[in-house]
Amino acid sequence: MKTLFLLTILLLSNVSVSSAQSDNDAIKRVLHEETVGFFKRDKARWANAWAHTPYINFAANLYGGDFLLVKGWNDLEKQFANQFKSSKVTDNVTVQNGNYTIHQNGNMAFVSYDQTLVDSHGKTTSKETRVVEKINGQWKIINVIALTNLKSFGLAQAQKK
User: Fold this and answer.
1) Contact present, 31 and 50 (Cβ < 8 Å)
2) Which of 10, 18, 73, 153 could staple 52 via S-S, CB 3.0–4.6 A?
3) Ramachandran region of residue 29, left (φ > 0), alpha (ψ -120 to 50) or beta?
4) What is the pTM of this model?
5) Range 138-152 average pLDDT
């Protein structure tokens, strides 16, 4: 009886670890897809990564010292509408994400990671955080904080001129 109990516990723990890894992979995938969709000007791909709710938030620092804070899906979609007006991609951007920390609690997860964008201007790095929510079985972004290393971004832009 003890052997059966221990075997059951062992099997359940393996299922739990496998499920957590599957969720982690799905979370990483949705974060990557959102960024790639943005830079490829693929609105459907970008929008599919987001929860279309009034409680989402997007925050980022901007070149020149300003910042951007957008609340709610409708306002976020309007904020980035110009990004998707042209289907012509101006630059081929490679997205490299790594050094993930994912803390999942039920249908919510907090994620932090390092992002590197590589294009014809050079390399731009940032520290990223996301909060994702599992909605109808799919992980969706509900909060973004993007802290870009604008010093290296400015150098890359200056070298281009």
Assistant:
1) no
2) 73
3) alpha
4) 0.80
5) 90
